[in-house]
Amino acid sequence: MVESAWRQALERYDHVVDAQGVARLPELDRWSRHELPGIIAARAAPHVTLPELVRLTEWKMARGVWRAPNLVLVRSNPAPEVVSTSTAALAAAPHPTAPIATLAKLKGVGPATASAVASAHRPDVYPFFDELVAAQVPGLGAVAWTLAYYARYAEALRARAAQLGGEWTPVMVERALWSNAGGKAKVK
Predict the structure, then answer these.
(1) Distance (Å, rounded) from C-alpha 47 to C-alpha 20?
(2) 179, 10 in Cβ contact below 8 A?
(3) What is the distance between the alpha carbons of residues 165 and 145, in angstroms, rounded to a whole number?
(4) CA angle 36-166-155, nearest 5°?
(5) How many CB atoms lie within 10 A of CB 56?
(6) 3-state SS string over the chain?
(7) Could you tell me if 157 and 174 are in contact, meaning their C-beta atoms sit under 8 angstroms apart?
(8) Cis, peptide link before residue 94, omega less than 30° from 0
(9) Cβ-proximal residues to 59 (8 Å cutoff; 6+ apart), any chain
(10) Interatomic CA distance for residues 48 and 46, integer angstroms
(11) pTM of the entire structure?
């Protein structure tokens, strides 16, 4: 796709989110994109709280596959542990995988949820890890929910953002690809 096609796909993102017909997805999506990054940035030591981690997990599941046991596990994390772990994780940015690996030590948090936190903090480095997006990236192969696969995925999206130039970030590339796939629709 040329840059204008990428731009059009990104501009359709809100519409695709709304068209999913999933309760709370539009509200959670807008919060994760427009409010949470500022909340994290305003803290002396960037981190997320347990309620924010729970809300991000709900967003991730609303946008993809709902896994109730994972949400129960995320909610079971001690609040101080979420703050200390996420503080350490986000302090490791811009290392390509350290924040993801650190966040994944929390109960119920794998590379996808960890990437949701990291992408809210550093969208210039960490795209959200999404299966529909990964399916559109040449050469990645079948999705594996591992740190090594995320590293390849994130690098591919960073490379595409660099190719597109200007203000493009890996997160913008991820959203354009998700929008292009039609959200939960099958990739064609």
Answers:
(1) 30
(2) yes
(3) 29
(4) 70
(5) 24
(6) CCHHHHHHHHHCHHHHHHHCCCCCHHHHHHHHHHHHHHHHHCCCCCCCCHHHHHHHHHHHHHHCCCCHHHHHHHHCCCHHHHHHHHHHHHHCCCCCCHHHHHHCCCCCCCHHHHHHHHHHHCCCCCCCCCHHHHCCCCCCCCCCCCHHHHHHHHHHHHHHHHHHCCCCCHHHHHHHHHHHHCCCCCCC
(7) yes
(8) yes
(9) 25, 28, 29, 31, 32, 116
(10) 7
(11) 0.94
Give CA–CA dist 143/162, Å, rounded.
23
Tokens of residue 92, six digits: 């490791």
35/96 Cα distance (integer angstroms): 24
pLDDT in tens, the chain (188 residues): 688 999 999 999 999 999 999 999 999 999 999 999 999 999 999 999 999 999 999 999 999 888 889 999 999 999 999 999 999 999 999 999 999 999 999 999 999 999 999 999 999 999 999 999 999 999 999 999 999 999 999 999 999 999 999 999 999 999 999 999 887 633 32
Q: Quote the radius of gyration of the chain (alpha carbons, Å).
A: 15
Is the C-alpha dihedral spanning 127, 131, 134, 139 positive or negative? positive
